[in-house]
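Reviewers of the previous submission asked for a worked example of the structure-prediction workflow described in the proposal, so we include one complete record here. The input consisted solely of the amino acid sequence. No template or homolog information was supplied to the procedure at any stage.
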Amino acid sequence: MEMLVWIGTGITVLGLLGLVWCMVDATRARNAGLDDAELKVRLQRLLTVNLASLGIAGIGLMSVIVGLFLG
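From that input alone, the workflow returned the following structure tokens.
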């Protein structure tokens, strides 16, 4: 079950990297001086990526917990 813990850790790190990327891209979008409509479209697209990254990180954490319980 140690392998499940390491796989879950890797998946969690990927999800966290996606969340960090969303934060960086949202900051760039706000500093780009876009008008309200363009900024809204860009942030809505980021919301999808943000939720997907959060889900991936959650699945990875669940894998880690299952691996710890079974191991």
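Residues 5 and 66 are 8 Å apart (CA to CA). We consider this example representative of the routine output the project will generate in years two and three.
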